[in-house]
Write a structure and sequence with these properties.
Elements: E1 4-9, H1 19-29, E2 37-44, H2 48-58, E3 65-70, H3 76-84, E4 88-90, H4 103-121, E5 125-128, E6 141-144, H5 147-158, H6 163-174, H7 179-192
């Protein structure tokens, strides 16, 4: 069948994102896949820490799995093109980003970027359960509490076709708002949290 595409948008930064969790879930999922899965890390993977993340995903490579990464920041048109072709997104955000003062805002600036990306293209999104999420995004969202949970959702989406109805309904669920209005509403809701 056609290849499935999973994207993790944003700079590849293991301090702010838990790639190991995604890696472990994929490692357990891959032997059961019935159609190939492509992982796209949609952000600069230039740092040494980022290269390690890329290498760990590349170690899973097979006829059924490949990892695509980019040394430089993607242009907006390229980013949008890759995102639009994705079947779903994972935003494996850590609860706290270890950079002192920035920590308070980190989640929200990043999450609003990631959520807006999901909404712009009506993409189903997987997000850690420790993030408060506005109602406007709920139809597209599944929250996970750790590796087992993430694996269960990936199984239901990829092995039991649970992703298909989500993708088909996504534009309808998002359309009544209009994406611009929804984006603005999302920013308001995030600021209110």
């Amino acid at each position: 069948g056609p290849r499935l595409r999973l994207a993790i948008p944003g700079t590849v930064n293991p301090a702010g994102r838990d790639y190991q969790l995604v890696y472990r879930a994929l490692q357990r999922l891959l032997p059961d896949l019935q159609q190939p899965l492509d992982l796209f890390l949609l952000g600069s993977a230039r740092s040494r820490a980022a290269r390690r993340v890329v290498r760990s995903f590349e170690s899973l490579s097979s006829a059924f799995f490949s990892c695509h990464s980019f040394p430089d920041i993607l242009t907006q048109p390229d980013f949008d093109r890759y995102l639009r072709s994705a079947d779903f997104l994972v935003l494996p955000l850590r609860r706290h980003y270890p950079l002192g003062l920035i920590r308070e805002r980190y989640g929200y600036s990043n999450i609003s970027g990631g959520l807006n990306d999901a909404l712009r293209f009506g993409l189903p999104l997987l997000l850690p359960a420790h993030y408060p999420v506005p109602d406007s995004v709920q139809p597209l969202l599944r929250s996970y509490r750790g590796e087992e949970d993430l694996l269960d959702i990936l199984r239901s989406w990829l092995l039991e076709r649970g992703l298909t109805p989500l993708r088909q309904n996504a534009p309808d669920q998002v359309a009544p708002y209009g994406l611009e209005a929804l984006s603005a509403q999302l920013d308001q809701e995030l600021l209110a949290i």
